[in-house]
Amino acid sequence: MPLEVESRRTALSEDGRPIEELVLNVGPSHPSTHGVGRFVVHLDGDVIVKVDPMIGYLHRGIEKMAENRTYLQIVPLTDRLDYVGSMYANWAYCRTVERLAGIRVPERAEYLRVIVCELQRMASHMMGIGAAAADTGAFSMFIYAFDLRERIVELFEDLCGARLTYNYVRPGGVSYDAPDGWFDKVSAFIGTVDATLAEMDSLFFGNVITRGRLKGIGVLSAQDAVACGASGPVARGSGVNWDLRKHDPYSVYPRMEFDVVVGDKGDAYDRGRVKLFECYESAKIVDQCIAQMPGGHFKAEGLPRLIAPPAGDAYDHIESARGSLGVYLVSDGSPRPYRMKVRSPAFCNLSLAGMLAAGHTLPDLVVVLGSLDPVFGEIDR
Amino acid sequence: MSPHDVRHHLAELSPQLDARISDHFEDVVIEVGSANLLQTASELLELGFDRLGMVTAVDTGDDFEMVYRVTSRSLSCSAFVKTRVGRIEPRVASLCPVWPAANWQEREVWDLFGIHFTGHPDMRRILLPEEWPGWPLRKDYDDPNVIRRPDYI
User: Fold this and answer.
1) Strands B27-32 and A323-331: what pairing?
2) Which of A9, A94, A120, B33 has the fewest Cβ atoms within 10 Å of its own Cβ atom?
3) First to last CA, chain B
């Protein structure tokens, strides 16, 4: 963790005591922020007074690029948004295009989308928990989490040939049907998940060091979570029972039986544990999808090569691994969107970092950031 | 209160706020003048719209359209609030006092469109460096980083 002292200045604390405030630059190569986030930390001794997240190191202007591409050409751009959970950005974008252009999606495609996105949720949460655990020094948890993630990535590779930027969900359906025997492989994998997750729960969340490091750190109240726009495990860790799959149901989720996992304290420990328990629910959903899988087409028939939706605007969102991921599209009737906006959950969640870290010590900043699970591709766009 | 009642309530308020209410897919669209934006937001918060999901702007050519999407968890209802902002020195009230979630998203709109939010606690660029020239998502933005062939060739 490269630390650089920027300045020292003498200030007065709130109770009139003279303090020497130290301004530290943390990052940009901080492990939990994947190399592109910089945090300007104001310290009083060892205590954090203020954190100012500096973002934009990965800003690629995806929204501007989208204005010069056709609707189908934008799908690969959305892969690069949330690069540990590409399926979500694909799906959110495709849903908005389908809504704007009035495209109907075959049922089989909806089931395939739910399966890949629930597998993706597990893979993404494993990345989140594993990286956060490695930051706090629990390296074996990182290996366990990445083992599980690796098995999911293998399944994705079988399905669409890619391991990171899948580009699988397309407007009107998905790009390929599942290959022979793929559902059996997924079922076999799902059968082993529960035992692995239970092992990870006792290994990491049952560990006395983890409890000491994570409990009571970065407490977020339910009221603040809603007011500040937090979503996903960050909001649910604070006890906000809000999951778009349940409360604004889309696709085939109304047919699935699963629970919304919520925490009660709203600290880093709860946020991490909510992620782990969500993986159990995802496994349940994948199981039900495979049991209900209908036949038929995997892509809408008779779709034009060049989609030109009628003039107007549309917004649609899905529950991604990090919360509600929405895409807003404005069409002027041409084959290129007039404006695209991605409402990313990680962006809104990271805006809480300053609030959550204030009052804690510098090593706790790592825990707070890890629990917010930032992915900078999505934050900077 | 059901979504139907929300629509009814908003329709009652609309002459007072000078608002136009319409439907768009399953959402309500409320178009207001920029002078009434803050009051409309407060009314929506009173009604139970406690989540501000998205803040963005669209360059329509003549002016800018600010688009806000708000959701009520208790009513299971979402609404778009839209307002027009002039092109010369664009300025609109910040919604941070109503929904703190507006903070970073309004900074992003300032960064990419150059729309100033009055009453915003921390109006700085967020994605681009401080010294970046111009507002990249405007339709008339001239990209200074594009290397052009000099005229004399």
Assistant:
1) unpaired
2) A9
3) 69
Mutation site, B56, B67, B145, interface A, largest A CB count within 10 A? B56
pLDDT tier, A1 (very low <50, low <70, confident <90, very high otherwise)? very low
Record the pTM.
0.87
Q: Can you spell out the DSSP letters for A260-292?
A: ----SS-SHHHHHHHHHHHHHHHHHHHHHHHHH
Measure in Å the smallest separation between the Cα of B58 and chain A Cα atoms: 7
Instruction: Give the number of other CB atoms < 10 A from CB of residue A328.
Output: 24
> C-alpha distances in angstroms, A220 versus A20, A90, A113, A226, A252?
28, 30, 33, 10, 32
Given this model, what pLDDT does residue A282 score? 92
- Residue A141: enclosing H or E segment and its boundaries? helix A139-160
Q: Which residues contact A145 (CB under 8 A, 6 or more apart)?
A: A126, A127, A129, A130, A133, A200
Say if residues A208 and A269 touch (Cβ distance below 8 Å): no
Whether B50 sits inside 8 A of A341 (CB atoms) is no
At CA A357, angle to CA B54 and CA B93, rounded to 5? 35
Left if phi > 0, otherwise alpha if psi is -120 to 50, otherwise beta: which for A373?
left
| ipTM beyond cut 0.90 | no
**Edge-first strand listing for the sheet containing A323-331:** A312-320, A323-331, A339-343
For A242, the token pair is 């809000």
Residues from chain B contacting residue A50 (CB–CB below 8 Å): none
Residue the block writes with tokens 């002078």: B35
Q: In the predicted model, what is the mean pLDDT of residues A192-199?
A: 90
- Contact (Cβ atoms closer than 8 angstroms) between residue A355 and residue B83: no
Q: Which residues contact B68 (CB under 8 A, 6 or more apart)?
A: B41, B52, B54, B55, B80, B81, B82, B95
Does the beta carbon of B121 lie under 8 angstroms from any beta carbon of chain A?
no
Distance between start and end Cα atoms, chain A? 25
Q: Enumerate the residues of chain B whose CB falls inside 8 A of the CB of residue A313.
A: 24, 58, 67
- Provide the pairing of β-strand B116-118 with B91-93: parallel
- Whole-angstrom Cα distance, residue A323 to residue A346? 8
Separation of alpha carbons A56 and A376, rounded Å: 8
> Which candidate, A379, A356, A375, places its Cα nearest to that of A366?
A356
Q: Are A130 and A196 in contact (CB under 8 A)?
A: no
Instruction: Compute the distance between CA of residue B82 and CA of residue B37 in angstroms, rounded to an integer.
Output: 9
Contacts of B67 (CB under 8 A, 6+ apart): A313, A328, B54, B55, B56, B57, B58, B80, B81, B82
| B11-48 confidence digits (pLDDT tens) | 777 777 777 777 777 778 888 888 888 888 888 888 88
